[in-house]
């Protein structure tokens, strides 16, 4: 009879550099070490997650042929190997498999011999091959399957059902492969109702039918349709499953039967329908797809698949209100489909992120033409029997669909490949596209009819009218970015890139292609009745694609990689769950800021009315209209006062139905351990997820704690992962020491194969050798402002929990030996104590002529924090440096003196690197300056030379018309401070000079002041111009001369004019340039962010996936621009650039191949008025960008 055995045990692994081949056995074999499967070899080094390398897997095993001849074929099934693998059996190369996500089989029978045998798998990883973290290795299960000579091939049974008046007609199509045996065979089908249990119960009373079907020798496929009366339907609210058994029997000469093969399936009866006007219907009722996209990594486990980790992921999604999953952008693990069936999730199963046009040099496009049909066969045959699958997606953001008509040919080919194996239409074919505004992509969508829109909700209405037979849904939406527990105030300021490399969880961080905010994508979908729904990007963060930074993992999720909710999670929960069943409320941010700091407080709730209290005082009630409203989370702006904030939810009658209170807190006093369950099965596979949190001495959560802890697991469990969700943290996932991020850390504890107690200890990673006392803390703080004791008592903090592993069946082939081990911290030394909070305090926050200065002190918590170096800046509300006040650091290093210069508001930012190379923490406090006047100077109006702020070098004389005379005896410098050039700036200066001779006069223009290497005076500056003034002298006549500097000066700068020659300068001014029509540098004149680009000396090069270049304040005025000149180059046949304007217009610029930089002129639709211009480079791009220039209508090329 057939057998299927898990084959994950007894493997060995070695990693080598690229270029090592099978013949180099002495190299890779010498490095072999035992390894657990599934395995991801890249996840162990967080600083090198994309290391080019080759993985070698070896397994030795004994083989004995079945003497009866009924066990003739031996097949290895690999459910996922990333990627480009080659298999060797006893030294013989059997073949290759290229794609890293599709399941593949190797019939190794003919390469085996009786006795010892060896399997070697060579796996090649070259980066970049994806836009996300792929992992590398045998990251899913391996099986050994033995089949009789005459057998049902793998995935050779296709199950479908059609609803009838009495129930369903169940059709079972079975493929057969015949051996030389000419005996009589029959199939037997048995359907059992096991009351939805996970293990079939073989009792006669559970059988719904048992039907036999004789076979004719040589018959390759046979079908059987069996009616099933009124089965219980599979649904998202009741995922009811039945067990179907298909058996292959052979008649014996003794009139008995021999069971040759049996296959089991868990099936569900459901009816799906997609309607252009009604959207998606499940079992006849409209269901809105509250879906999410999901990449395949599991946080600290990397790509190595663990079913229990995925189960937790599904549960977290369900708690948010998610009912559908898009497997972005590849075939999922087998268990993902099993869990979706079991837990009631609808699945959009996606196969490809690229076709023939590559998005990365080493991606699957290299193999698509030759391998597409093999991969589609594997994909559809494996997963077509799952009731959860509702769509087959043949691609995501495919540039081929936009490039030319060949994209339509590939679309047709892919549809045909899917229908070859899903010929009874278990699920329709779709595609997810970000090219939907353009004709070619629309032609591809017209082929599939089920059209997925990526970030293109604004085209729904237009296309619904234009293509009334299309079914429309959001295949990818949102992409709002946020970091858990990080807040960049104020809410009304859009922010994306900050010094701490975090994204604001307030809801004010968004990318150029994304929804305006989280509310937008919820409301757009809610108010589009014909839409099937949407799949947000994403429910949970994933490793890789850390837009807008170059850090470790994404910021797109509503939960971080550890599964801890961000604030946006609660907004989706509020809108996607039923208040009658589960009333909820969430208030944020946490409550621990600087005294007097203005804090935006927001509330999310599924209730119709909410109220905010600060220290028991109501701030007012607000209504939330969930049906038609445009404000889904009310906001208040309140000054921070220690104490608490409380949010209360009320139903339609005014009755309180939910409440949440958040308290101010101190330093960590103790750790709190919370497990998702206290008992696991000792089967080597089960897992417990332990949340580690910090609380202060009053039992309040310390929601910005960053303590380093050591996690020890003893007994019948093993530590397999630590994750805090912080994209900027490079400490090892597989270590035993990690720090909390914003008060939380997740420990992943896996079962061994022995029952017993599991003792988990969480303690301070190291005991500080010295600790400041509470009295010291109070004394230091009181020097400026009285601060309450906020420091935990010194001592070693330890928390323990005892869990239990109970005896359970162990699947043969399981390996359960891997455990985390000691890794050094990525940046700090053992003993390092992180800064938790920088508390700023000042006696006044309004500066006036009577009180022009104030001392601002910082209290560093905890006081024994190691890194006490503080960084300071004065900025406006947008984070841009401001000169309306100045700061002077105090000798203690933990405070500054702030002096107002001119009227306006500003922020003081205090920052800490916390022992790392970059800023990790920002604390801010708002100030106002009144009555001091405007101190900025405009360089675009004549600046009187004598009004310099300071000078150095030679004596400065005062000449006619308030001119300033330089000293011929030595170099003279004139410094003009607070020159406001604006965001765009100018590189053209005009000097009005009188020189009483005809000689050349050499002049230097500096941004800032020359450093010691120049003239020995002042701060270090940058030389931006060395010019020569020479005109025939006219007595006391100031003659202007215009010069171009080496670059534009921007923002508020100090300008220094230096000369060794004698002359009088009356005034100077800069030419105010029209930014919209100027030649703008891609490198220096805008903001660039995305996944893949390189800054060179004068360009942005190697622009790849999801890169945006933004240029704001582009005022085209009443003139009309109808063309653009771009200087760039691309190795591609053509590189598509999306040119987006803030008025919603988007145009496509196809830049042709060029090995050298060239200027290309493109006609564009007419543009007027003030715009923000964004160049968007989609996946598959490869472009070097130097500069561009818009041209006015009618201008010459």
UniProtKB/TrEMBL annotation:
Record keywords: Glycosidase, Hydrolase
Pfam families: DUF4982 (PF16355), Glyco_hydro2_C5 (PF18565), Glyco_hydro_2 (PF00703), Glyco_hydro_2_C (PF02836), Glyco_hydro_2_N (PF02837)
Name this polypeptide is given: DUF4982 domain-containing protein
Entries under InterPro entries matching the protein: Beta-gal/glucu_dom_sf, DUF4982, Galactose-bd-like_sf, GH, GH2_Domain-Containing, Glyco_hydro2_dom5, Glyco_hydro_2, Glyco_hydro_2_AS
GO biological process: carbohydrate metabolic process
Domain Glycosyl hydrolases family 2 sugar binding span(s) in chain numbering: 51-148
Organism of provenance: Simiaoa sunii
Glycoside hydrolase family 2 catalytic domain span: 278-442
Annotated ranges, domain DUF4982: 596-658
The Glycoside hydrolase family domain, residue ranges: 673-771
Family membership noted in the UniProt record: Belongs to the glycosyl hydrolase 2 family.
Record SUPFAM superfamilies: (Trans)glycosidases, beta-Galactosidase/glucuronidase domain, Galactose-binding domain-like, Invasin/intimin cell-adhesion fragments
Residues covered by the Glycoside hydrolase family 2 immunoglobulin-like beta-sandwich domain: 164-270
């Amino acid at each position: 009879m057939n057998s299927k055995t898990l084959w994950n045990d007894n493997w060995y692994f070695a990693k080598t550099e690229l270029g090592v081949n099978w013949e180099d056995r002495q190299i890779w074999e010498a490095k072999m070490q035992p390894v657990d499967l599934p395995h991801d070899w890249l996840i162990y080094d967080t600083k090198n997650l994309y290391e080019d390398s080759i993985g070698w897997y070896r397994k030795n095993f004994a083989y004995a042929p079945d003497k009866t001849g009924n066990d003739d074929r031996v097949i290895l099934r690999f459910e996922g190997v990333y990627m480009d693998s080659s298999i060797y059996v006893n030294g013989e190369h059997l073949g290759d498999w290229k794609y890293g996500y599709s399941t593949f089989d190797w019939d190794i029978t003919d390469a085996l011999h009786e006795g010892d045998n060896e399997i070697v798998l060579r796996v090649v990883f070259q980066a970049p091959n994806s836009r996300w973290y792929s992992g590398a290795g045998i990251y899913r299960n391996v099986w050994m399957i033995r089949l009789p000579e005459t057998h049902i091939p793998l995935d050779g049974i296709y199950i479908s059902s059609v609803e009838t008046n009495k129930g369903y007609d169940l059709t079972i199509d079975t493929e057969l492969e015949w051996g030389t045996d000419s005996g009589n065979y029959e199939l037997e089908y048995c359907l059992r109702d096991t009351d939805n249990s996970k293990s079939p119960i073989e009792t006669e009373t559970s059988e719904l039918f048992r039907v036999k079907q004789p076979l004719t020798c040589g018959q390759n496929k046979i079908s059987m349709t069996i009616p099933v009366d009124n089965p219980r339907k599979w649904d998202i609210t009741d995922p009811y499953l039945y067990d179907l058994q298909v058996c292959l029997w052979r008649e014996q000469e003794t009139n008995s039967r021999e069971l040759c093969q049996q296959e089991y399936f868990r099936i569900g009866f459901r009816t799906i329908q997609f309607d252009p006007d009604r959207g998606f219907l499940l079992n006849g009722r409209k269901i809105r797809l509250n879906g999410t996209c999901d990449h395949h990594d599991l946080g600290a486990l990397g790509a190595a698949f663990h079913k229990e980790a995925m189960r937790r992921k599904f549960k977290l999604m369900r708690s948010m209100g998610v009912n559908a999953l898009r497997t972005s952008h590849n075939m999922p693990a087998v268990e993902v489909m099993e869990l979706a069936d079991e837990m009631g999730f609808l699945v959009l199963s996606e196969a490809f992120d690229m076709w023939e046009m590559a998005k990365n040099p080493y991606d699957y496009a290299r193999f698509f033409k030759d391998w597409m049909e093999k991969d589609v066969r594997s994909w559809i045959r494996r997963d077509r029997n799952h009731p959860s699958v509702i769509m087959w997606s043949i691609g995501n953001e495919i540039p081929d669909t936009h490039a030319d008509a060949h994209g339509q040919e590939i679309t047709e080919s892919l549809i045909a490949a899917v229908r070859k194996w899903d010929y009874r239409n278990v699920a329709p074919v779709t595609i997810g596209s970000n090219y939907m505004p353009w004709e070619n992509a629309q032609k591809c969508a017209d082929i599939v009819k089920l059209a997925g829109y990526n970030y293109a909700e604004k085209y729904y209405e237009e296309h619904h009218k234009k293509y009334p037979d299309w079914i429309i849904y959001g295949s990818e939406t949102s992409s709002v970015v946020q970091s858990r527990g990080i807040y960049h105030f104020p809410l009304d300021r859009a922010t994306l890139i900050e010094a701490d490399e975090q994204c604001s969880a307030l809801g004010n961080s968004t990318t150029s292609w994304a929804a305006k905010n989280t509310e937008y994508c919820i409301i757009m979908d809610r108010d589009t009745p014909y839409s099937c729904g949407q799949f947000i990007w994403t429910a949970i963060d994933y490793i890789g694609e850390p837009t807008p930074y170059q850090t470790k993992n994404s910021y797109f999720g509503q939960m971080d990689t550890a599964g801890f909710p961000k604030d946006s999670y609660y907004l989706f929960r509020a809108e996607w769950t039923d208040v009658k069943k589960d009333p909820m409320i969430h208030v944020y941010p946490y409550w621990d800021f600087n005294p007097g700091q203005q804090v935006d407080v927001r509330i999310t709730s599924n209730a119709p009315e909410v109220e905010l209290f600060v220290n028991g005082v109501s701030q007012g009630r607000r209504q939330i209209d969930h049906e038609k409203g445009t404000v889904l989370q009310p906001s208040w702006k309140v000054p921070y006062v220690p104490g608490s904030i409380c949010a209360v939810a009320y139903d339609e009658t005014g009755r309180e139905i939910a409440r949440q209170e958040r308290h101010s807190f101190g330093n960590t006093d103790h750790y709190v351990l919370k497990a998702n369950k206290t008992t696991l099965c000792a089967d080597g596979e089960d897992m417990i997820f332990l949340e580690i949190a910090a609380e202060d001495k009053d039992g309040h959560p310390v929601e910005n704690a960053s303590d380093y802890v050591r996690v020890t697991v003893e007994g019948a469990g093993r530590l397999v992962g630590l994750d805090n969700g912080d994209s900027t943290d490079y400490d090892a996932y597989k270590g035993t020491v990690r720090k909390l991020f914003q008060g939380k850390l997740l420990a992943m504890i896996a079962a061994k194969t022995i029952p017993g107690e599991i003792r988990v200890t969480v303690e301070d990673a190291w005991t500080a050798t010295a600790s400041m006392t509470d009295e010291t803390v109070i004394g230091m703080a009181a020097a400026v402002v009285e601060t309450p004791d906020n420091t935990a008592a010194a001592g070693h903090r330890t928390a323990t929990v005892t869990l239990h592993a109970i005896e359970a069946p162990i699947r043969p082939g399981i390996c359960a030996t891997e455990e985390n081990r000691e890794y050094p911290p990525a940046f700090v030394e053992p003993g390092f104590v992180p800064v938790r909070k920088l508390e700023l305090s000042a006696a006044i926050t309004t500066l006036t002529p009577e009180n022009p200065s104030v001392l601002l002190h910082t209290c560093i918590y905890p006081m024994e924090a190691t890194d006490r170096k503080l960084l300071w800046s004065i900025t406006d509300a947008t984070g841009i440096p401001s000169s309306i006040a100045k700061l002077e650091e105090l000798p203690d290093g933990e405070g500054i003196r702030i002096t107002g210069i001119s009227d306006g508001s500003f922020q003081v930012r205090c920052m800490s690197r916390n022992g790392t190379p970059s800023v990790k923490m920002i604390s801010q406090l708002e100030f106002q300056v009144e009555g001091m006047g405007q101190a900025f100077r405009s360089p675009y109006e004549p600046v009187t030379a004598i009004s310099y702020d300071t000078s150095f070098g030679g004596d400065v004389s005062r000449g006619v018309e308030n001119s300033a005379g330089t000293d011929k005896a030595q170099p003279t410098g004139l410094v003009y401070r607070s020159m406001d050039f604006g965001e765009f700036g100018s590189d053209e200066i005009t000097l009005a000079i009188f020189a009483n001779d005809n000689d050349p006069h050499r002049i230097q223009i500096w941004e800032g002041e020359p450093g010691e290497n120049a003239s020995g005076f002042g701060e270090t500056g940058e030389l931006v111009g060395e010019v020569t003034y020479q005109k025939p002298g006219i007595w006391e006549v100031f003659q202007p001369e215009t010069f171009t500097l080496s670059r534009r000066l921007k923002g508020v700068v100090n300008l220094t004019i230096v000369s060794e020659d004698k002359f009088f300068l009356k005034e100077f001014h800069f030419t105010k340039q029209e930014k919209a029509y100027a030649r703008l540098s891609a490198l220096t004149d805008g903001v660039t962010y995305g996944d893949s680009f390189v800054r060179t000396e004068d360009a942005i090069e190697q622009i790849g996936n999801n890169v945006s270049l933004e240029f704001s304040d582009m005022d085209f005025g009443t003139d009309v621009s109808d063309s653009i000149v771009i200087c760039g180059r691309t190795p591609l046949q053509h590189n598509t650039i999306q040119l987006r304007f803030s008025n919603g217009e988007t145009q496509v610029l196809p830049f042709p191949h060029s090995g050298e930089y060239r200027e290309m002129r493109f006609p564009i639709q007419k543009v007027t008025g003030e715009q923000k211009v964004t160049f968007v480079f989609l996946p598959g791009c490869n472009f070097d960008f130097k500069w561009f220039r818009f041209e006015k209508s009618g201008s010459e090329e």
